Each structure stands twice: as C-alpha cells, then as structure tokens.
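User: Fold this; tokens only.

Assistant: Input:
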Amino acid sequence: MKHLKYFESKRKNPQELLDEYSDDIVRVLPLYYNNFSTDSLHNQIDELIWECREADRLRGDDEVLSEEVVRQLIEDLTGNFYIIDKLLNIYYDCLPHTKNINKDKIEILKEIFLDYSDDGEISISKTAKFRDERYEVRLKLENVFLKINFEEVMGRIKEFTGIENYQITGTKDLITIEFYKDLPK
C-alpha cells in the first residue's frame, strides 16, 4: 500500500491527502488498533497520539481507540506535513489488515460456499441457540459428503472469520454445519 501513497504524493501534498482520506482514516485506525493489539503499527499509532496533546488528553487512560480520538488527531495535525506523512504511512499499512474485519461473517460464509451453490440449495444464517456467536450453513445437494472438500472449506473459514469450532450433522443429501465462537465473558 505504500506504493499507492508514493504514487498519490506525486500529485498531492500531505494535507490534501489527509483531507481526502480523513473519513477512511477515522474508520481504519480504530478498527486496526482495537483488533490487533501487539505489533509495531499499534505502537506507532500510540506514538502519534502521544505527540498530539489534545488527542492524548481526549483519549485518557482508555485502552480502546475511538473514532473521536482519531478525529481530534487529524485536527491536531493540520498543517504539520511531517507528522501527517507519518499518519498516512500508518494508514496505508493498516488498510489491508482491516478489509476482512469489516465484512459481515454471513457474507464471508456465502463467498466460501458459493462454489457449491450450483449443485443444490445453500442457506446461511446466524442463529441464537446458545450463548455464543453461531452461524448455520445448510447444504442440500445429492451426495453432499462426496462433493465438499472439508479441509479446504474449514481452513478458509478459520482464516477469514476466526471461527474454529464447528459441528456437523447430516444425511446423504442434507448437511448442516454450525460454526460457533464463544462470546467473551
């Protein structure tokens, strides 16, 4: 993503880029910060906030980064090209990591099971049977167990949703897979 920054910086100064991307920066930085807690980008975001007195005051001792703090950070940086450049670098580095976080898990499951939709009926829903985050996938197709590559499907679900637990029930032509993740206590 840094290549995008350098390409765009040829035609715009850092303040113009900040003005253009401010809404997306306000969305991306808290999303990244609150989902990835121990890496160098996380620390760089902290350092930027510490450098800006009002944003640091607004944040206080809170461990979560809010959109309000990032808006204040952007306001504090107005006119300071050097620090705006640092903020844009961090934004471009965080951006690819936040693409899947925003996606609804039902949409991700639909994409994963799209390959099997030509052979039969597929329904995907969020259920509330237990005290956890649970999604139910029902596949109705002939010889369903022979057509699904379970290792590949489960690997993609774990990678894109973070859900590792599942329960399978089924017959020859109907399979129900429940994916679930325990809620934090």
